[in-house]
Write a structure and sequence with these properties.
The chain has 606 residues and is α/β, with parallel strands linked by helices. Helices cover 42% and strands 20% of the residues.
């Protein structure tokens, strides 16, 4: 017999900011009211775009805010605990004071036990504690309360890889239920068994973990697209531009992964055996001419501790460098030395004269809450210079998955994730050939992560990334610099999984490899694929479509350059309309060509 739910929301409706976020006053006013039932032992991923209301839904569950309509039912004796994304530490002296505060404080010995496993000193002052220390303290407080249902809002933010592993292990053994919001695909895939999808005010549930979410999402969008065929063409375009963009982007990014594998293999041939920093190229002069950052024998020591032991590296234009390691291992120190923000104790760092960088910091600078989106992006105007090309601000908003109607919305009304996405949009518009990203995935939804992956892949320059997001690194970087806390820096061609595999390699085996002055083997290729024989037409399309896609991209760029002339419409509205139609047709043909080629590639490569 099925067990009754331990928690339920029934007929929930909430108005926020003058609009109905969930439900509405009448059945025709918007999405249907929300129903949610949590069963004992549920492992639920709560998925939705930034601004969809995910955190708001968790706050409704905790009665932090009141719904306009609906009922909340809790099984007697059920303890619900909320691990907030940004807990309030104000008014607390030490981290332990925070953990033992509130109406449902856990026992001190339970907090100490979990804190010890997480490696956090609870006597630290809250005011001076780092983001990672605060996150660990909040986790210790939440888990020590022995909850029946725990709500986790971005639990891996500010955690290092060791702490993430510990939390995953704890949750895998946990007998209660949990609902988690997270951008960490690896975390979600490993732990969840069912998915709640919050989309345009509707909450859907499917008994499949996050690993099956994307296929489910595409199925829903495909069904909506078929229904939209009966709609007016203009309404269809306006209502579904984002869904089509998400699906197409995901397919394009699968193609980009193939290119990433090739780049990793090429870089592996330059890296000497077992973690040394010696790089080789058929022509050393050729290699040097392509180098944009050269580090020679750099090191850093604080007191008696070696943070970075002598280390050398040549970074080429186009490299995507991931820097990983536990908190305190020296990631930020290494990043600052490579960007010349911090002087090394020994050695030198040389930059190419043409190197020009943009840094998007982990501590996102606060955007003025009273400023509008238009002011942030275009200084109040209609046009923004995007890497030297003028674009209309509303078109640029679409590129970053915003509804163009938000252009005059104040920043203070946006969700935390939307503000992070707005900052990315502004910074990526700047002309630069070096991007430095420190924990760029925090606060971003999954669709924005797909977008960020695409932007990095298409960036015509070099990228340095500090991140704990394992899936993101595996999909993005060509070289990983792994720090184990001893001061040694391992150089691995590939992403996080490649570095983790190297760490697990037996020490004796690594030492033997290190004694051999020979290039390391390239990273393993993608899994073996069964090939199929294409028809003559399919084979021809497979061969000629890449060139056609390049032609269409060039035509689109040329058309957009003409349309960016603010005087064109006034001078010749008919030509403006003709060029606009041509660009739209080229985009449609390009999208169809990309999908056709990817479908054929999947057949050829399995």
């Amino acid at each position: 017999m099925a067990q009754p739910p331990i928690f339920s929301l029934e007929g929930l409706a909430l108005q926020q900011g003058g609009r109905w976020l969930f439900g509405g006053p009448t059945p025709t006013s918007g999405a249907a009211p929300i129903d949610l039932h949590v069963l004992p032992g549920d492992r639920l991923a709560l998925i939705g775009r930034n601004g969809a209301g995910k955190t708001t839904l968790l706050r409704l569950i905790m009665e932090r805010i009141d719904a306009d309509r609906g009922q909340r039912r809790v099984k007697p004796g059920t303890r619900i605990v909320f691990l907030e994304q940004e807990p309030d530490f104000s008014g607390t002296g030490t981290l332990m004071d925070f953990a033992l505060g509130g109406d449902d404080a856990p026992a001190a010995h339970e907090v100490e036990a979990i804190a010890g496993q997480l490696g956090i000193d609870m006597s630290r002052l809250s005011a001076t504690a780092s983001g990672g220390e605060r996150r660990r303290a909040a986790i210790a407080r939440a888990l020590a309360q022995d909850p029946d249902l725990i709500l986790l809002d971005e639990p891996t933010n500010h955690l290092d890889l060791g702490a993430i592993d510990w939390l995953e292990d704890w949750l895998s053994r946990y007998r209660g239920a949990f609902i988690t919001i997270s951008h960490d695909r690896t975390f979600l895939t490993r732990l969840t068994r069912a998915t709640l999808w919050l989309d345009r005010g509707t909450l859907r549930r499917k008994e499949v973990g996050f690993g099956g979410y994307e296929a489910w999402e595409e199925q829903v969008y495909a069904e909506e697209a078929r229904a939209a065929e009966r709609m007016d063409a203009k309404l269809k375009i306006e209502a579904h531009w984002l869904e089509r963009g998400v699906t197409a982007r995901r397919k394009r990014n699968q193609g980009r992964l193939e290119k990433l594998y090739q780049m990793r293999a090429a870089r592996a041939s330059m890296i000497a055996g077992a973690g040394t920093a010696k790089l080789k190229l058929s022509s050393d002069d050729d290699f040097k001419s392509k180098s944009v950052i050269v580090a020679e024998g750099i090191s850093k020591t604080y007191g008696e501790r070696a943070i970075i032991k002598p280390f050398s590296l040549r970074i080429q234009n186009g490299d995507r460098i991931g820097i990983v390691g536990s908190n305190g291992a020296g990631k930020t120190t290494l990043l600052k030395m490579l960007t010349k923000e911090l002087e090394p104790d020994t050695g030198s760092v040389t930059h190419a004269k043409t190197l020009s960088g943009v840094m998007i910091d982990q501590q996102r600078k606060l955007l003025e809450p009273d400023a509008t989106v238009r002011q942030i992006l275009a200084e109040g105007g209609d046009w923004i210079d995007v890497r030297g090309v003028r674009k209309h601000v509303m078109a640029y908003l679409k590129d970053f998955l915003f509804d163009p109607g938000l252009v005059d919305t104040k920043v203070g009304i946006l969700s935390g994730g939307e503000r992070s996405r707005l900052l990315l949009a502004r910074e990526f518009a700047r002309t630069a050939n070096l991007l430095v990203l420190d924990e760029p995935t925090n606060d971003l939804d999954l669709e924005t992560l797909d977008l960020l992956q695409e932007v990095i892949a298409d960036f015509d320059g070099t990228v340095l990334i500090v991140s704990h997001d394992r899936d993101f690194l595996d999909r993005t970087v060509t070289i990983t610099l792994g720090l184990d806390g001893s001061g040694k820096v391992d150089i691995v061609a590939g992403g996080y999984a490649d570095w983790e595999a190297k760490r697990r390699q037996p020490v004796a085996s690594r030492s033997a490899a290190a004694r051999k002055d020979e290039p390391a083997a390239p990273p393993p290729p993608p899994p073996a694929r069964s090939t199929v024989k294409l028809s003559y037409k399919d084979q021809r399309d497979y061969e000629i479509l890449p060139a056609r896609i390049e032609e269409l991209e060039a035509a689109i760029a040329k058309g957009e350059a003409l349309l960016n002339d603010p005087e064109l419409y006034a001078k010749d509205p008919q030509r403006f309309a003709t060029i606009s139609a041509g660009v739209a047709n080229a985009r449609t043909e390009k999208d169809a060509a990309e999908e056709r080629w990817l479908m054929l590639a999947e057949q050829v490569e399995g």
